[in-house]
């Protein structure tokens, strides 16, 4: 196991195309860090720099206190699990897991011991003689993970390892990865575009946006206090509602067109007096027929016991997540205008209109 440090790490491609704009992060020994963000945000590039597959333009990456900028991948003591499994089709499961150890010159006895131990952890012992084509997608991914485990590296790197699996298998594999980390306690870096994976797996997460770490924190911190409108709109399903408003010196809230909104002054922090900002409300923290914001109903999606009520206030889309029985007696009609507001149990969120950064209370 080892610590992992990023010190002002930057990456620029030819033509002065900057993809990582300077990351500072200290990963503790045994910590599980998830890097999450949309396609093109730089998350895979960051991981490839740790692996030694991409050069570092500026800054330093340290593994266990040792700068690895100019070390070859084989010299970094890391193991990587890829999106496409990368198994040798002509080899058995045992041979796939043992191959890297044989190349390193380990004895047959030690190779057998490590492979058997990893196979037991991943419940692959009965599949060791099979070829990859005889395995399911989840089993292939477990083999790829086993190949990494047998190396006993200082750092595990996971590059979107579950993206090729169906929804049910992804849930199962998330559980397997959680169990694996609790058992091995190896420092891990995990890249994904799936916020559910990030929220369920991470001890801490990095939310990336165009090469910048918008926020670094625990899943609870990121969800409860998003650092920017980007994080607020990316983390959460459905994402947070963001309504542009103007707050006067008396803490009265008006929308873009000057229409007053029924937001109590006690919920408006003094730090946003006389400012233009975004008012943020999570869909699951809102209630129908509650003083707050007029919303014209556009669509209703029923999701079993819950429903998503989609509507619009002026040019701003709003979604409310609520129980189905909340409208059973008085069904909503598309086109009608209702009031929606906060549930009184969760704080409102405020962001600067120009910068998108969170305004603290």
Describe the structure.
The protein is of the alpha+beta class. It has 2 domains: 4-228, 3-Layer(aba) Sandwich (Rossmann fold), CATH 3.40.50.300; 230-352, Nucleic acid-binding proteins (OB fold (Dihydrolipoamide Acetyltransferase, E2P)). The chain is 23% helix and 34% strand. It contains 8 helices and 18 strands. The strands form 4 sheets. The protein has a 6-stranded mixed β-sheet with strand order 6-7-8-3-9-10, with helices on both faces. It has a 4-stranded antiparallel β-sheet with strand order 2-1-4-5, with helices on one face. Helix 2 (93-103) packs across helix 3 (108-121) and helix 4 runs parallel beside helix 5.
Short description:
The chain is α+β, with helices and mostly antiparallel strands.
Features:
six-stranded mixed sheet, 2 domains, 18 strands, 361 residues, elongated
SSE order and pairing:
Layout: E1 4-13, E2 17-27, E3 32-36, H1 43-51, E4 58-63, E5 66-67, E6 78-81, H2 93-103, H3 108-121, H4 137-149, E7 155-159, H5 167-184, E8 187-192, H6 195-201, E9 204-209, E10 212-217, H7 219-224, H8 229-234, E11 241-247, E12 253-255, E13 275-281, E14 286-303, E15 306-313, E16 316-323, E17 337-342, E18 349-352
Helix pairs in contact: 2-3, 2-4, 4-5
Overall morphology: elongated
**Which consecutive residue ranges, at least 5 long each, have pLDDT under 50?**
none
Helix content: 10-25%
Number of E-type strands = 18
As for the CATH topology of the largest domain, it is Rossmann fold
Radius of gyration based on Cα positions? 25 Å
Q: What is the CA–CA distance across the termini? A: 40 Å
Strand order of the largest sheet: 6-7-8-3-9-10
Describe the largest sheet.
Answer: 6 strands, mixed
**Helix and strand element order:** EEEHEEEHHHEHEHEEHHEEEEEEEE
What is the typical, i.e. mean, pLDDT?
A: 92
Strand content: 25-35%
Number of domains: 2
CATH class of the largest domain: Alpha Beta
